[in-house]
Amino acid sequence: MSTPFRLRENGAELFVRLTPKAALDRLEGFETTADGRSHLKARVRAVPENGDANHALEKLLAKTLGMPGSAVSVVAGGTARLKTVRIEGDPATLAKSIEALGHQS
Predict the structure, then answer these.
(1) For helices 91-101 and 52-65, what crossing angle results, to 10°?
(2) d(CA 90, CA 7)
(3) Among residues 20, 18, 27, 13, which one has the least CA distance to residue 75?
(4) Which of 19, 21, 52, 73 has the smallest number of Cβ neighbours within 10 A?
């Protein structure tokens, strides 16, 4: 099983499976696909038009992690369900915070 994130020099990259047009904005813990890759499941109320769902995801993650919105950005998978989100900050602190996301539901 892989981890749902990768640490970088100035932060981390988090792998997310995003479901737009949901009833609530929420994070639903980690999930592993059949090929062994892990990701964080997230749902947002926003529609996937003009980047609205991606912005909602960035805002949700920033709020949950207690970070400014400018520290969180979708860097890959802009129009796909599976996304890579860049989070700027101390890698060790982020690793603990991201691991804690897996215990939410």
Answers:
(1) 110
(2) 9
(3) 13
(4) 21
- Report d(CA 49, CA 3) in Å as an integer: 29
SS3 of 92, please?
A: helix
Distance CA 28, CA 65 (A): 14
CATH architecture observed for domain 5-101: 2-Layer Sandwich (3.30)
45-82 tens-digit pLDDT: 999 888 899 999 999 999 999 999 899 999 998 888 99
